[in-house]
Fold:
Amino acid sequence: MTATEPSIFSRIIAREIPADIVAETDHLIAFRDIAPQAPVHILVVPKTEEYVTVAELAAADPELLAELVLFAQNIANEHADGSFRLVFNSGANAGQTVFHVHAHVLSGKLEEGRLG
Ligand code: 5GP
Structure:
């Protein structure tokens, strides 16, 4: 049996690779996107990599999804004026490149790009 490689985000959670971590709870972590598409661009990631898409997370653990949304609001309050977009890319054809569910918290004018 081949062990599955941990996702890049699991490696950030494990502190195996560096990231600019801005907040963390028992279940969630938030760090700045390495290629920001807006003045504030922070990723909010459940620590479990059990779920790939937001719909999978919603079906399996709606409380964790609600926790994620409230955590995103707190981050927008702290790093912006409380206004934010919450983007979940679901599936490769929608631009998802990391298959460990995560939300993009974006505030300020978006750069031209795939999130815009
Ligand atoms: P997706 O395209 O899957 O919705 O979003 C993945 C995001 O993760 C992208 O915006 C990408 O810039 C970001 N990302 C990929 N690898 C790393 C990394 O090693 N560190 C950080 N901080 N962000 C990353």
Q: What stands out?
A: The first helix runs from residue 8 to 13. The chain has a mean pLDDT of 94. The pocket of guanosine-5'-monophosphate is lined by residues 8, 19, 31-35, 43, 89, 95-98 (CB under 6 Å).
